[in-house]
């Protein structure tokens, strides 16, 4: 192995991580499409961004695993189990693997209907759980925070969280990524950090819907605040400490994605809000919107777990029951108001 750091996934976030890493180290960036890696190496640019020459692209999964003992992964959650299985023969307990994925993988991948039997509990695996079950990697981490990739690629100031049960993972990530205007905070709450990153996408869709309909800043604030409450009570139901939800990877990322037009989850919700035409919004979306699958999974979970989550209910009804946004907003007003803060 050499001292290059591997990044798997050459989309928006993988490219942004590569550029941040290249400030401190050489980077091997894996693009599964050979033409893409050849173009990156020839032009030193990708998706319209000029890349530092310290980034070399590669399309051989075995080679990147052999050459890099530290690997970052940034691909869509629904592809993650396939990738983990493909990497498995090339990974060893010496590797450190850090993912930046904000979504879930179904426990039973055949069960695309997300049907959950009453005693099944949480129906999904986080990406660290996928890595643990599909590979023999031990030292696993999650990088999560308010990290809109376009802002990172423009080198605007940002910060993030590295969560892991292993100090080596945290220190390695901090040494590799810390730089002027980008800092990593540490967390021991790996699963909580992963869950917070996935759940905030649902709230970002809700906030986009509210703004697309011009329903005002008051309602936007209610949706974001009550959305955070729903993230926390889902966490509580899974015995997850609130810490992960209250820091940068929770409320920090929630603010970024629920207010930024450059968030794909927010802008998906915004498009729906503007047209109230879910079929068209789904049809027109070319970008990855992790929150759609997460909404379907989590809605089924909160129903079975008997949790009251009006914001998630609202998003579910608009996307999956084709309800108009104005009508779905009623979920937020359908409950007797009790204590404002009922979750701490
Ligand atoms: N963009 C952002 O601002 C941030 C995104 N994230 C999270 O990072 C994850 C990835 O998002 P993002 O980079 O934006 O998504 P993009 O859609 O921009 O890119 C996804 C990349 O993953 C690649 N890919 C898909 N499947 C595989 C596979 N099996 N093996 C190897 N490569 C694969 C795609 O390759 P191909 O082009 O060949 O299809 C593509 O390059 C998501 O979970 C997202 O929530 C986290 C923080 C910020
Ligand atoms: O998680 C993100 C920024 O932190 C990216 O959000 P989107 O996937 O909605 O673009």
TrEMBL record:
Residues 190-329 form the Glycerol-3-phosphate dehydrogenase NAD-dependent C-terminal domain. One of its GO terms (biological process) is glycerophospholipid metabolic process. GO terms for cellular component: cytosol. InterPro entries: 6-PGluconate_DH-like_C_sf (IPR008927), 6PGD_dom2 (IPR013328), G3P_DH_NAD-dep (IPR006168), G3P_DH_NAD-dep_C (IPR006109), G3P_DH_NAD-dep_N (IPR011128), NAD(P)-bd_dom_sf (IPR036291). The keyword Oxidoreductase applies. NADPH binds at residues 13, 32, 102, 149, 264, 288, 290. The active site is at residue 200. It is found in: Cytoplasm. Sn-glycerol 3-phosphate binds at residues 102, 145, 200, 253, 263-265. Signal peptide: none annotated. Its EC number is 1.1.1.94. Keywords: Cytoplasm, Lipid biosynthesis, Lipid metabolism, NAD, NADP, Nucleotide-binding, Oxidoreductase, Phospholipid biosynthesis, Phospholipid metabolism. Substrate binds at residues 102, 264-265. NAD(+) binds at residues 9-14, 264. Residues 4-167 form the Glycerol-3-phosphate dehydrogenase NAD-dependent N-terminal domain. Pathway: Membrane lipid metabolism; glycerophospholipid metabolism. It catalyses: sn-glycerol 3-phosphate + NADP(+) = dihydroxyacetone phosphate + NADPH + H(+); sn-glycerol 3-phosphate + NAD(+) = dihydroxyacetone phosphate + NADH + H(+). Pfam families: NAD_Gly3P_dh_C (PF07479), NAD_Gly3P_dh_N (PF01210). NCBIfam families: PRK00094.1-2, PRK00094.1-4. PANTHER family: GLYCEROL-3-PHOSPHATE DEHYDROGENASE, GLYCEROL-3-PHOSPHATE DEHYDROGENASE [NAD(+)] 2, CHLOROPLASTIC. Belongs to the NAD-dependent glycerol-3-phosphate dehydrogenase family. Catalyzes the reduction of the glycolytic intermediate dihydroxyacetone phosphate (DHAP) to sn-glycerol 3-phosphate (G3P), the key precursor for phospholipid synthesis. This is Glycerol-3-phosphate dehydrogenase [NAD(P)+]. It comes from Membranihabitans marinus.
């Amino acid at each position: 192995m050499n001292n290059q750091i591997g990044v798997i996934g050459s989309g928006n976030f993988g490219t942004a991580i590569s550029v941040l890493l290249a400030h401190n180290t050489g980077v091997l960036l894996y693009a599964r499409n050979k033409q893409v890696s050849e173009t990156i190496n020839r032009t030193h640019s990708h998706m319209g961004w000029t890349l530092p020459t310290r980034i070399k692209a590669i399309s051989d999964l075995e080679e990147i695993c052999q050459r890099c003992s530290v690997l970052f992964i940034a691909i869509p959650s629904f592809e993650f189990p396939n990738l983990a299985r493909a990497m498995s023969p090339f990974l060893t307990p010496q590797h450190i693997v850090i993912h930046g994925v904000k979504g879930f993988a179904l426990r039973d991948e055949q069960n695309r209907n997300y049907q959950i039997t009453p005693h099944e509990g949480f129906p999904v695996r986080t990406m660290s759980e996928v890595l643990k079950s599909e590979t023999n990697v031990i030292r696993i981490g999650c990088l999560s925070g308010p990290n809109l990739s376009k802002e990172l690629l423009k080198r605007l100031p940002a910060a993030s969280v590295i969560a892991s049960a292993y100090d080596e993972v945290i220190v390695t990530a901090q040494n590799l990524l810390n730089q002027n205007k980008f800092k990593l905070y540490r967390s021991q709450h790996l699963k909580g950090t992963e869950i917070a990153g996935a759940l905030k996408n649902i709230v970002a869709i809700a906030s986009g819907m509210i703004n697309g309909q011009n329903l005002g800043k008051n309602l936007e604030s209610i949706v974001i605040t009550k959305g955070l409450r729903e993230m926390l009570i889902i966490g509580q139901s899974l015995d997850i400490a609130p810490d992960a939800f209250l820091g940068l990877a929770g409320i920090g990322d929630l603010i970024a994605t629920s207010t930024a037009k450059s968030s794909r989850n927010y802008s998906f919700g915004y498009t729906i809000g503007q047209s109230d035409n879910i079929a068209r919004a789904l049809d027109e979306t070319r970008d990855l919107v992790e929150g759609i699958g997460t909404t379907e999974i989590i809605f089924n979970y909160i129903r079975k777990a008997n949790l009251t989550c009006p914001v998630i209910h609202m998003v579910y009804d608009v996307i999956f029951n084709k309800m108009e946004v104005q009508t779905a907003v009623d979920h937020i007003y359908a409950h007797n108001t009790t204590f404002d803060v009922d979750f701490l």
